[in-house]
Structures are given as structure tokens and as C-alpha cells.
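Risk register update: the risk that structure generation would not scale has been downgraded. Supporting records follow, first protein first.
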Amino acid sequence: MLGVRVACCLVFVFFGSVALARTPVVLIIESYHPVLAWTAQCEEGIRQALGEGFDVHSFFMDTKRIPESDFALSASRAWEAIQSIEPDLVMLGDDDALSMLGPRVAQTGIPIVYFGINNNPRNYFTQLPRNMAGVLERTPVIPWLRHLTEIMPLARRVLVLLDNSLTSVSIVDLVFQGRPSIHVGRLDVQFHVASDWADWQDRIRGASDYDFVLTPTFHAVRGSEGYVDIPVVVSWTSSNSPVPVFSNQDYTIGEDGFTGALVLVGTEHGRLAGEIARGILEGTFSPQNAPFLTDRAGQFYFSRKQLERFGILLPEEIRRNALLLD
């Protein structure tokens, strides 16, 4: 059963026609699954930036849904894809793909373009490769908390709740830097990495000790029966939280979703990475001379129903720059 599931998860998707003799081949290795909104958006942005004239393939490692014990198998399948396709350039999406495949691909000399990386890429290599460039993803946790002090001026205590994943570890390292809590303006901000679905539920039920919850990651929550689907996590969390819940993903906002989000747009993030890849393949620059980019831009999303539920009135400047969803 597990073998069938892994085989189904590790879908190998080919885009475009069969490569012609001199068509550059690009292999995008995504850490996650193709229906995850962030993954799909990044993929769209990359292919928009590359445009015509490239033979683009994609491999999805599915590390948000498969057990951690299967990660090595997923990485092996991705490596087999590299050997089979023989790409001119490999794109590694998010921290799992970079950490598990980056050092091995770097040794081949194939140019690497990373994207969606929350941690410092140096942490995944003994020495930073000269054949690598990319775009860092900096989930706007601190900027979001600063905006939330304007949105909820009476708030004092905040819980940052995360799933148990490498992305969460990276966010905690960058934001909290080894401290159990931090202060952002007048906010006392604590974090908790939920060990499983039951732990997540307990934290939400007990969230009345806080003024609001911010959950940057909830994509790898697992229960006794395995992976918990994202819509289930979002709807249950929203329904059972005694305080407003905010996130960094647009697809969590709605009538039965979270209250608001400050979002890095995946299509733009992917476009930035795709432009770097195109520049390398067209000889505009080499990987070591490629532009060093960090994606920090954000878009506000809010749920009208959830704002009304918690009696939140948005400051006029934020409202003008926000998308309000029913």
C-alpha cells in the first residue's frame, strides 16, 4: 500500500513537447505536491519567465504529505530523474529539495537555481557552490506582526503556531534566534511547534490565553492516521479558535477560514527565479554573478465574515491596500 501511495505521490510531470536538439532542458524539483497553492503558483511564475524555447520538466517530492521515513526514497527518485533527463539547469524549490539534493547536484557542475528557501542556503553545504544562485523566501512574520499591532491595538500576547517541518525550523531560527519569545512593539510573541494534530488542536483550544494566533506553516500536520489535509486544518482551526487566526497564505482566507493574511505571491516569487534561470541559460550571467534576490513583498487578504466575528475594524490605509474576501 505504501509503495502504491509513494508511486502516486511522486508524480513525474512533463511540460511542453519533446526537446529538440539544441533546446535547453530545465528540471524543476519541487519539495511539495502540485496541488499545493504555493507550489502551483511558483511553477506558473517560473514557466511564465522562461517562456518559449525551453524544455521544462517537473518532479514533485511531496514532502508535506508523505512520512518523513520516505523522504530519502523521494530524494532518490528525484536524483533518478536528474540522471534520466540530463537537464542543462536544475531548479530546487523550497528547503527540503535544496537540503536533500543541493549538495549532490552541485557536485555535477549543473547550474542550480533555488527558490522558496527560508533558511540560509549555506546551512545545507560545507561550502557554498559556485554553480548556484536563486531567490530567498522571507515569510513576513515580523512585518505581519507589526501590521497586526495596528489592526489589533489592544493586543499584547501572541502565539506563533507552526507545524513540525523543516520550513518551521527555518522560520523559528530566523525569527526567534534561539529565544523562547520575542517582543515586537508592545507584543509579547511566543512560538510553539506542534508535534502532531492532537497537539495542534490542544493549542488552538487553549488560545484564549492569547489575543491572536499567527500560523505561518500548517502544511505538514500529521495525526494518528497520517497527513491532515490543509482545508481540514484551516476550517477546524478557524471554527475552534477563541481568538482571530492569521496566516501567510491567501487560500486560507474566506468565510470559514482565517481572519487575514500577509502573503508572498508565489507567481511573482517563481518569476524571479525563472528570470535568473533564463539569464544563466542564455549566457547573460553565470550563477556566481547572478543577482542575489530576497522576496519580501506582501499582499493583504482579509475575510469579511471573520473580521465581523471578532469585531475588527481595519485601519484605513491597510483596508485600501487589502483584498477583502467573502
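Supporting record for the second protein:
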Amino acid sequence: MIRVLLADDEAMIRAGLTAVLATDPGITVVAEAADGREAVELAHAHRPDVVLMDIRMPRLDGLAAAAELAGVVPVVMLTTFDEDAYVARALADGASGFLLKAADPRELLIAVRAVADGAAYLSPRVAHRVIAGLRTNELTRPATARKKVSSLTPRERDVLALVGRGLSNQEIGRELHLAEGTVKAHLTSILRNLDVQNRVQAAITAYEAGMASPPPRI
């Protein structure tokens, strides 16, 4: 069962999200927060598998809350806004996904399951903007990315390439004939050596280094 924490200051939005998530028998909402500070406190208390976090909230905004939860629990930013500044900050602060509230409800379920499975998820509309942003710096970023990747072991590079394709830990394990725990250990080392906070940033590094094409669910 995938345990989800909802964080949104609008009760009707939380009710709608709960209704959508309830259509999947493998997902349950364990707590709801009406502001960012409460979301952080409830995340530590309940340790959900995924946090769905609105950006604009009182007391502590969703981006700041996501930054506090980096490394504690995966956070998917859920918002009506897709401005580049929000996307860039969310990814830089360690969010594992970015989903627009206007998206198809089925996309919400896909995102929750992907992130709970150890993958990352960007709404296709957001992914397009991220990739476009990468291409504006295509002359300088690849060299930096390749230098970072050179610090990895051959096996870690294998894992990173598959992360760049959007595969989950389980899928990477099957591809490389590794135990899922071994994949997680490699990923921890990869994040540390690349000096990135999560799979999204690692996947972007793999793309910039020429190790992977932009996957559909980075």
C-alpha cells in the first residue's frame, strides 16, 4: 500500500485529490496538511511514501517545505503554476516530481506510483520546459556533466544511464541483474559523487553527459 500525505491550503482541493487517489486500491491518504509547516511535521510523524505538496501555502511555502524534506520523503510538487522559476527551484531543492493540477487525474496516479517506486516524475508539459532549458546551455553543461560522471565507477555509470532513461530501482535491478538493495546503494553513492539531491537531478546530469535521451518521465 502506497501511503500519501496531501499538503494544500484549500480543503476542496484536498478533497478532490483524495477522491482521485481513492480510485486506486493500492494508494491511501494517511494525513492532510493545510500549510507547509504542518506538512513537514506530519511527514516526519507519518513517514509517508509520497508527499503531494502545493507550492503556494501559508506559514511555509511548498518549495521551502520540500527543501526541508529532501532526503526524508519523496515530494511531488502539485501546482497550477508551471513558471520556469518554480520548476527550477523545486528540482534544485530536491523535489522528486512536478505535476500540474490541470493534468489528467490518471497522471496523478502515475506520478504517485512512479515516485513511490523510486523513480521520478515530471508532467510532460514541465519536462518539455526543463529539456528546453537544458538545451539553452548545451555548449557548457555537457563538459561539466561529463566531468562529474567521470568520478563514478563503471557500475555506477551503468546505473546512472538507466536512471536517465527513467527506470525505477526495481527495473534497473532486472536490467543489470542486481538486487534492489544493491541498486539503492549505488544510487546513494551516485547522488553523493554527483553532488545532486535526487533522481531528477541525476537524470538531468545523465542527459547532459550524453548518457541518455530525455526520458518521458524524468
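Residues 2-132 form a domain with the Rossmann fold fold (CATH 3.40.50.2300). On this basis the risk owner (M.S.) recommends closing the item.
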